[in-house]
Structures
1.
Amino acid sequence: MSTRIARSTPGARAAMVIAALGLIVLAAAPWWAGRADMRLLGEIYLYLSLAVLWNLMAGYAGLVSVGQQAYVGFGGYMLFALTMFAGLHPILAILLGGVLAAAISVPIAALIFRLKGAYFAIGTWVMAEVFRLSFAQASSLGGGSGSSLPVDVVRSLADSRSGREALSYWLALGAAVTVMACVYLFLRSRRGLALTAIRDSEVAAAGLGINIWRTKLEVYVVTSAFTAIIGGLIFLQKLRISPDAAFSVNDWTAFVIFIVVIGGIGTLEGPIIGTILFFLLRETLADLGTIYLIVLGLVAIVIMLKAPKGVWGLIRSRFDLELFPLSYRVRTDAPDKGA
Amino acid sequence: MSALLSVSELQKSFGAVVVADASSFDVAQGEAVGILGPNGAGKTSLFNLITGSLRPDGGAIRFEGRDITSASAAARCKMGVARSFQIPQPFVGMTVFENALVGATQGAGLPAAEAEAHALDVLHETGLFAKANMRAGSLSLLERKRLELARALAAKPKLLLLDEIAGGLTDAECGALIDTIKRIHAKGTTIIWIEHVVHALMAVVERLIVIDFGRKIAEGEPKAIMESAEVKEIYLGIAADG
């Protein structure tokens, strides 16, 4: 009888093939989709990225932040500032915005990591408000009323409007794929195993040799950097920025939390399902105005009461399913043993 | 024999509740020590102080001659101190195998292939192999207690702290557990075991320490300690002159 450790399952392999085919179809969208559809898809990719990142931070590392709009807005403003004043190419500006966000997130973490639980959440929100008020003071970036991306900066992306739209679409798709791939590979690594242990019990994880504080700091810094890059891409699509839009707690945190919670917090599959559900609801109910938000709230309450682990948690409790092969499975190959 | 663990003048209180009151004792390399005491005597708190999940108000803890009083819980595990929790703390969303793998990769710091082999060995040793692919959240209480033992062993400890892992077992299960712990001890692991199931404790340990109100009230050869009047009075509630 021999024992071996397998990490992939037939279900996961099938999911990977379907995902790869789906990705090819989506990458070709500029040739088959209309302008409005591409814009919607781009928005979906960016929300998916934000949800995957927030889930890594809150669902795994236990850092329930309601202030990630700080980094979305920061990334957006860095795109405008670095292209307008430093003359950088927009894509370079967005990437540099991510690096700067990582740098700024370290002292912020040193400050807010002293707070626990609900106090941490409030601390992150206060920090995001500090960001909003600070950027509203920057008169060169339009102060409280904001500014538009100059025409020559927009032109530097591509000459034609359709070319720009295709590029911006591919950037959003590429960002989502990169974020998913990075989070997946991280969770699959031995440090990902440590982070998953922290998700389930911090006291036991510490007792087994895991440095909780350092792991959380790493997750916070990396998440913040990626969130700023996504923020840059969001405002590259919008071409206009203002403090209220850039640091909106509703748009960049409340909706993201909704997505993660209904999809299934603390799982890699949850944010994907949550994003699909969120956009289905939004596209079918958006015309109803305020009622749309009331329905969103009701859906969130019902799911939290009936399926606290989200839609994916519900599916996983019924079937032992895994789209991303993160688990280790022990297989014993018993040599021909009579029944 | 040199002292592997040396606890001196340990002091800890939560407001008016004293959980460690100038406790001092040594545990030698390769020894198996039992800790007895009534509920609330400060037994688990003593483990929390030794493993670093609690910080003492005073006193010192030395491990292999090094002062670890201010070392983090994670650092102490890497040095070779691992424990089981009285109230099991499984990683509920992970499989039984992955729970053990956390100890092997993080605590013991083994490279991937060795860690996997070691985690499997530990599951065989603790009788959890058949449940390797089950999520820890779906285990029964007894299985969770065994998982506590498995995970601590996976970290390859020099000093293993066991916190009431025999409670609620049937005689047969308890006998199997005693055998397992004897095997672990025979391989050279130093053990400190808190247990209310006295016969299990007596079968394994070479020395008993009795604590009450955070104070060490007796220490010595297990049989002699169990027969001493002081222990009978404080631990078993029998009047010394009765």
2.
Amino acid sequence: MFTLEKRPTPSKAWAWGTPFLAVALTMVAGGLLFAALGKDPFAVVRTIFWDPLFGEFARYLRGQLLVKAAPLTLIAVGLALGFRAGIWNIGAEGQYIIGAITGAAIGLAVYPTESRWIFPLMILGGAFGGWVWAMIPALLRTKFNTNEILVSLMLVYVAETILSKAATGFLRNPEGMGFPGSRSFSSYAAAGNPELIAGTGLHWGVVAALIAVIWAYVLLQRHLLGYQIKLAGQAPRAARFAGVSADRLVMLCMGMSGALAGLAGLFEVTGPAGQISIDFNVGYGFTAIIVAFLGRLNPFGILLAALLMALTYVGGEMAATNLGLPSSAIRVFQGMLLFFLLAVDLLSNYRIRLAGAAREVR
Amino acid sequence: MDFYGINPAVLIASLMVASVPIMLAAIGELVVEKAGVLNLGVEGMMIMGAVCGFITAVHTGSPWAGFLGGAAGAMAISLIFALLTQVFLANQVATGLAMTLFGLGLSSLMGQGYNGIKPPAMADVPLGPLEDIPFIGRAFLSHDAMVYVSILIVAGVWAVLKYSRVGLILRAVGENHDAAHALGYKVRRIRVLAILFGAAMAGLGGAYVSLVRVPQWTDGITAGAGWIALAIVVFASWKPWRVLIGAYLFGGITVLQLNLQAAGARIPVEYLSMSPYLITILVLVIMSSGKGRAGLNAPAALGQNFHASR
């Protein structure tokens, strides 16, 4: 039998190595899954991981990578701040939806005014909407001790209901012949979020994601608040003695992650999605949880992880159209990745020793 | 005796049916949490139970086999959780979330081609003339067997936790795993068994959704029932009987809002359909605040991993 021996400090080498190991293991297990579905596993893995980057249609698909990675990065960077401090905001999907609705509502309210101030105002609105939605679980946690995991999750369902009300009711396109969905932002220049350089997929959300990564890195490495976040996660008792206010951290971490998720929602709805529709949200808020862990809660790691996850989205769509792979297979694949990641994390926190061997040494 | 065209006896009858899935999932999670394990994957286990139960029932033609299949499917996926948290010592919150994401994807993959099929119907328990008692017969005595089985399970869990040695050991493991380990109890084994029991219950609850409550298969059919079950455990302050009350409360709200929608009440449909979630939040707030807050009753080792250093 094996025994586990806790490392005094987590292994640095394994902290870097585990994400790669987890991805490799997921490819093997995913290959088995695809084979079980009657597909050629090598063809599927190549379609998902190789073709979007270097295949025939890579010119177009590389842009799609940025489009998908931007919201994942924005949300995951925010979530990671909370996860580091032991604050579990898992309702990012709801904050994403509400941010999108708030920001879009500002733009739609002034339609068809053309002014350069409209889009910045909408960005603020998006961040504000997400922040407000995240403040609900944060306030309930700090004032009433309510579990933020359950409250933030419940608010996702509430947000989805509000979204369907928005798409069919208060934000519906008055000229849309009664079809659900708001006015299209692609034909409203002052409020749209177009591709900045044609064919690259680069839009303002990508820019914001890069800024968020750098901002979060600086916050964690160079700022007192970042230090407090890390301290509260690793040694809550020590943090209390050092005078770190747990309530303040909850409010700040939830607020920042909510605002970032709201931003992601706004950039998505004005750009790639194009309008408020009943189902414009495709679960980025939940996938971002995987991204945060895959990136080891490190901002730059998250950026890489988001690109990888975007690859599975883009490649998964390719595999669905070209090879008939069911689209839900990709969600299974992403879920597997998180499982493997959590499993191999053992290697960075513990040493594995053969029980018999240890005794001989003694 | 109708309000808004809603007959109270029918309302109570459908309330009892609506509360079965969350009651089963919540009582299972209660046992898991009593053993000190926080399994946030209830939603994932439930939906696996729903899809496995549905597939089994369609192929065997027997709803009972479906329930067994549902329990087995949920237990299978929970083994991953057990392995990760008990052997690999992974973070329980993250692993539970992973199980929910994985379960939602896998169930949708497995359920392909089962949309629009009707599962074999579950017969009511024949109680003969008792069913003809006015009001009581319609409200309480004309249900399928799982309604009564779920109540019996709650009673069973209560009795085992309160009066039996097994229950005492389980609680000891959940309150202080180091002390339990020092007394020679197999902390890890007990926790794995508790996780499996919780999964079986969540699976039964999920299967009840797809076989009786809805009854058909669609993606994401459990629609947050697993999360509500988790909230009910907090609402119940980890006491089995209160799970019963909690499940009836939430079942009642669900049924009432559906009935109000059908009856065309003047409240917009959207506000009605978000009400179960809002009321869950409200109840959580009431239960977790103040002096007698539920959190004080939580198992002391809840969510902490156990690693025997000696």
